[in-house]
């Protein structure tokens, strides 16, 4: 049996480190790449764009908060984005990261209540193909092996990891961006108000979304928030997913002025609008009326308008020709 944990980012202007409970092991990245010093996501995960034939290294730390020594194995492994969640791949060698990443101490004994600094080297061959790979650097602890056939012959394996988002290719880092397409207010089965934000990854890199929501100008002039968006949503390029914000069950239905700020690393977007929560549990209300019309929607409307104008122009020309023929 095994338990795996990958660090997750928080919302706001900073991302917390992966904190381990007392009596366990933890792992923490200690540095970001030089071109991502202003990217809070890069201090939690290894997020990089590397040219083929390049070598880089990253320092990280292992913590043992237990009162006994722990034998820890360290190794890289592949990961994937499945159902908008970053998860370990069933096969740790599913991509090349297992052969590209090496740990300076693949196995060690961590004394009680200790911290140990380690180094991960990433070597990209010149023949590497373009594209983003997902993986993790794992720290694994296994319970003592038991003899087959003995009572309770189950070995527990616990591991914690640092996510790796590694894009390979010439030139600079591909663009990262997203679009907040819609806000929908609703209520859970127990009547808790919730807002669902539909987000589309319009860039070329995976995103880890977090953020905050504020409500203002509610009934009686009420204001509420900030409320944190639920973390854990990882969007692959070209994909859409809902980001949920759970609110206080004491809030009245509205109407409310709403402000939502979402971010992934250095990319931030904010939408504002007006919404009203439905009265009944387990229902969704009408989408919020957003204050700003999205650029993509303007492009679509403009295109449709141009097609309509062209259609009526063609129709008018045909009618004019018919009249001329009748007059002749």
Automatic annotation (TrEMBL):
State which residue ranges cross the membrane: 295-317
Please identify the protein, giving its name as recorded. Answer: Peptidase
Superkingdom: Bacteria
Q: Which UniProt keywords apply?
A: Membrane, Transmembrane, Transmembrane helix
Q: What is the originating organism of this protein?
A: Acrocarpospora pleiomorpha
Q: State the residue spans of region: Disordered.
A: 1-22
């Amino acid at each position: 049996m095994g338990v795996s944990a990958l660090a997750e980012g928080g919302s706001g202007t900073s991302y917390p480190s992966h904190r381990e409970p007392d009596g366990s092991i933890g792992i923490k990245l200690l540095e970001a790449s030089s071109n991502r010093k202003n990217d809070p996501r890069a201090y939690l995960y290894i997020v990089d764009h590397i040219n083929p034939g390049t070598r880089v290294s990253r320092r990280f730390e292992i913590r043992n908060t237990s009162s006994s020594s722990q034998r820890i194995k360290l190794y890289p492994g592949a990961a994937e984005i499945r159902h908008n969640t970053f998860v370990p791949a069933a096969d740790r060698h599913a991509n090349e990261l297992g052969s590209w990443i090496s740990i300076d101490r693949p196995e060690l004994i961590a004394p009680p209540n200790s911290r140990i600094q380690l180094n991960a080297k990433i070597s990209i061959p010149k023949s590497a193909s373009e594209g983003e790979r997902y993986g993790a650097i794992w720290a694994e602890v296994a319970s003592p092996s038991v003899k087959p056939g003995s009572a309770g012959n189950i070995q527990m394996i616990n591991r914690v990891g640092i996510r790796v988002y590694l894009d390979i290719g010439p030139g600079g880092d591909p663009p990262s961006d997203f679009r907040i397409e819609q806000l929908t207010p609703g209520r859970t089965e127990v009547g808790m108000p919730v807002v669902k934000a539909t987000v589309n990854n319009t860039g070329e890199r995976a995103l880890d979304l977090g953020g905050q929501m504020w409500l203002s100008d509610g009934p009686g002039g009420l204001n509420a928030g900030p409320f944190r968006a639920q973390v854990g949503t990882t969007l692959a390029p070209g994909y859409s997913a809902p980001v949920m914000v759970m609110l206080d069950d004491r809030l009245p239905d509205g109407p409310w002025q709403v402000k939502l700020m979402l971010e992934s690393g250095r990319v931030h977007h904010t939408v504002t609008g007006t919404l009203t929560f439905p009265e009944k549990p387990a229902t969704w209300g009408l989408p919020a009326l957003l204050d700003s019309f999205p650029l993509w929607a303007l492009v679509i409307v403009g295109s449709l308008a141009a097609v309509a104008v062209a259609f009526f122009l063609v129709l008018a020309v045909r009618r004019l020709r018919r009249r001329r023929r009748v007059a002749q």
